[in-house]
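Two proteins were folded this term; both appear here.
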Amino acid sequence: MKEKTMNRFSFFSVCLSGLFFSVFGAAAREDAHPAAKEQVYTVTEHIRFNEGTLPLKNGGILLSNFGTDTLNPLNREGRGYIVLLDKENRILFPASGVLNAPKGMAVKDDCLFIADVGCVVVYNMKKPEWRPVKIAFPEGDLFVNDLVTLGDFLLVSVTNTGHLYEIDVKDCDAVWSAQRPKPRKVADIPGANGLAEYEGMLYVASYDPNENPGGQNVIYAVDMTVPGTLPVNLMGTRYGQYDGVAVSPDGSKLYFSNWKNAEGKAEVGYIDLTPDKKNAVTVLDLGVELQGPADICISDGYLFIPDLPANKLYIMAL
């Protein structure tokens, strides 16, 4: 290992209403030959419990950090902050008492949406002088985890309840108005955690909030283009504590992070989505022992892997 420092209508209600999980589907096949070690870079500057990663269209990667002394994904200390990793590593939105345990992120127009404890926090990236606002979730929906934009709507996962919500984000500025959009529950998938979408296919990683994964804690695919489609289990019996998911640019691979495989170890790998590969799973060799790989992303031929407990961001050439 070489280490360096460094407008779509709301089809949620059509496709997902009444959705429930299924542990059946295309079984995963484990690849007998893990991928060889690749070039891996390590970033530690400004990293303090980095959970989320998000590539920006104009370049750079956003990193969400808890900023706390100890790891607590449901803390309310107000020490969370956002880093921009570009030509240099700098704090874009410093800790100000607004963010607690920021996790997954998504951008729609000028709005940056950030999953946080019991809410989604919204910043206006073009008008940073505007105070960020919070879109509150129903009581009990605390572990708001990830977000993905689909047209004019935002899909949000809540891990502790397994709820999926949609938020109308057609008008970014409306978030700061009296008509602030409200989340509406559209589906349930147990342990719904990381989200990714590619050409109408939604991928959902499942993580057991009680740290006791079972057969329902896999990775699901939901064809959003076909109303009433049930989620398909892509992993077969290969359950775990799946956190992040990211699709390769050509849609042929679904990368994932997993805190706990069958051997109790953390891992990062991918599912081969090409039809003849039958969802074969390959585990990647980073040359380091991962502690808790969280919300991954892909940008410019690199896989960005935040190791949340380790306070490190690994960047792996693909």
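Next, the second protein.
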Amino acid sequence: MTAKIIEFPGDNGSSSAQKPTLYQIKATILESEPPIWRRILVPSGVDMGLLHESIAKSFDWAGYHLYLFEKDGVSYDAPQLYDDMATKPAGSGAHYDAEKKGAAEVLRPGDKLLYTYDLGDNWEIELEVEDEVPEADILVPFFPICVDGARLAPPEDCGGVGGYEDLCRILADPSDPAHGEMLDWAGYESGADFDPEFFDVFGLNESFAFDMVDEMEADLIPDDPEELKEMCKSLLVEKMLMMMSVSMSINLKEDDAVL
């Protein structure tokens, strides 16, 4: 399932005069030790299905497994799971299709809820809505974005928290009989390439940005070869200027430190 990063729905019936806002959400994988967590900014106008995609993406998961959110005795389910629950006898609790419920209808700053992803591996993730901020205050061209986090995300389909702990142990021990097989499965050439403490916030946001470009490719990329060439040149110049600006900033800080 491809995350829909830019084309978010509207504001779920709120006043047209109301300015767009972002939820700052901290997502922590329960029972991970030390905690594996991400802090992301997501438009409050998304539906709960798009919130699922944003959270899954922040942990580098493809998002194709079933999921559900639970808050105050109410469940907001993946559409397939919701359809299945519709056939169950009454008394199984209130259930809603996550893609038909806006996040702003469900969440408020200070709220906590449980997000469960992949009912086989059963990743349980506590979501805390830490704040709601004006979208205009965050000067980036795409959302969601990740602003902080800790530790490498467990790979998809590794067997939940227990399976990930086993994977970490096996990859750290070249003498383990399963070491070579697990290296191949996880996509590493050697155990030294695997660092469970590593977290790359820039790489994650780059992935979010690529999703945005994929979603809006027809609008962003010109068909005319000459226009495309000029666009590429402009982007290269912008990148060079950005690199120069960063380099100058670092040098100025070093000079100030010497003075």
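The CA atoms of residues 20 and 136 lie 8 Å apart. The longest strand covers residues 123-134. These notes refer to the second protein only.
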